[in-house]
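Researcher: Here's the sequence for the chain we discussed earlier.
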Amino acid sequence: MANRYRGEIDAELGGERRTLVLTLGALAELESAFGAEDLMALAERFGSGRLSAGDLIRIIGAGLRGAGACITDGEVAAMKIPGGAADYVRIAADLIAATFDDSGATP
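Model: Thanks. This is the structure I predict for it:
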């Protein structure tokens, strides 16, 4: 079960319940993929509300790898989820919120 205080979320992907987390390494991977100078630039990009399908694949893939999964972005792209495209957006948004939203993060 995911620990929200550590920035983890759970999501059903590819017929399995999986944990995702954007670790420091996963965030560095996303900075590189998006050409962001730093975490603030990355957060601003995510906060724009404009994410492509490729962005969603990269974010979800980084979150899975951050949680220890050995998975490629190509494998993430092929995964099916119950809610279709809307669920991909929800998963990425939940993961970003769990990573960058510090409201209530202190138990």
